[in-house]
Structure formats: C-alpha cells, structure tokens
Design brief:
This is GST N-terminal domain-containing protein. One of its GO terms (cellular component) is cytoplasm. The chain is α/β, with parallel strands linked by helices. The protein is built from seven helices and five strands, in the order E-H-E-H-E-H-E-E-H-H-H-H. The chain has two domains: 104 residues, Glutaredoxin (3-Layer(aba) Sandwich); 53 residues. Strands 1-3-2-4-5 form a five-stranded mixed β-sheet, covered by helices on one side. Strand 2, helix 2 and strand 3 form a beta-alpha-beta unit. Helix 2 runs parallel beside helix 4 and helix 5 runs antiparallel to helix 7. The longest helix is centred in the C-terminal third of the chain and has 21 residues.
Length: 174
C-alpha cells in the first residue's frame, strides 16, 4: 500500500554554514543552479515547489533566518531574504520572480500559462493572494488578526478556484 510519505519529493540540501568562504565564492562562477532558502519560510516553499514541479536540476542551500551569516548578505542577497536563486552566476531575487524564472527556463512557462492570456491572469491573481503579508506575520508571531486575514485570503483563493477558474479546472491544477 502506498502512503503519502512514499510521494514526498527529495532534493539535495546543504546548510549554508557548512561551506567555506572559498566554496561560497565559487558559487558565482559555477554552472550549477542553487536555491538559497529556508525550510520554514513560506516564500521559500513557493520557489522550492516550483523547482520540484518543473524538474529543475537544483541544490538547496539552507540559510538560517534566525542566525543569518553576514556573508549571505555580503556575497549573495543584499536584501537578506530567501528565496534567492543563483543560476550560472545570474541572481534572481524574490519568490514570485524565482518561480517565474524556473517555470520559463525549465517548463516553457506552462505553470504560469504563458500561452493562454486569460488563464495567465488567473494565475497572477492567485499569486497576488500569496503575496499578502498576513501569512508571514502569522507564522512568525501567531498574531490572531493576521490569522483571520489569512483565513480570508484562503476563502478568496477558494472563490478564485471555484468561480473565476471554473473553466480551467478540468485541465489540471496548473
């Protein structure tokens, strides 16, 4: 019998702090695709899910948000945020942009529906709902007002799926 655990995707992941300065410097000239993220960050999850969905050949570099190394901001992401993607020396910041980049590079833009302008607008509407700060605020602080705002966002996502995207539901989740 197959369980949900049998379908959990695996991916290479290494702690940022385990690399030497020379190894970190070499990332900028490496042809490898590296996703700097944090397993607890919802925005990092967006980038990770996209990388998995489009079968990108990537390595996750786990960055501590609680004890972020100074070198992360100095060598890589001057904003000090995750996710951050480094592709053959090219830097991509912010989760929505990372997701679009990965989709375009490895999936011909199918996740973002580039060939169907109406479906693409619905994708962008859903993406905009995930940009809402209550998600992150609630996860960090447990603030009840942020929780209620998050619940309202989930209700709006359900409406988008059941009403606005009704014509597209039979075409799959993406």
């Amino acid at each position: 019998m197959t369980t949900a655990a049998d379908h959990v995707p695996t991916y290479p992941s290494v702690d940022y702090a385990s690399f030497s300065d020379d190894q970190l410097d070499a990332f900028h000239t490496s042809p490898d695709l590296r996703l700097f993220s944090n397993i607890n960050c919802p925005y990092g999850q967006r980038a990770l899910w996209t990388a998995l969905e489009v079968n990108a050949p990537f390595q996750v570099v786990e960055v501590s948000l609680a004890n972020q190394p100074d070198s992360y901001g100095e060598k890589f992401n001057r904003y000090g945020t995750v996710p951050y993607l480094l592709d053959n020396g090219f830097a991509v910041y912010e989760s929505a942009i990372v997701a679009q980049y990965l989709d375009a590079k490895f999936n011909q833009g199918r996740l973002h529906r580039k060939d169907d302008v109406q479906a693409a607008t619905l994708v962008q509407l859903v993406i905009a709902q995930f940009e809402a700060r209550p998600w992150y605020q609630y996860l960090r602080t447990g603030d009840e007002k942020a929780k209620e705002q998050g619940i309202e966002i989930l209700k709006e996502l359900e409406t988008i799926f059941t009403v606005n995207a009704k014509a597209y539901r039979d075409q799959g989740p993406y």
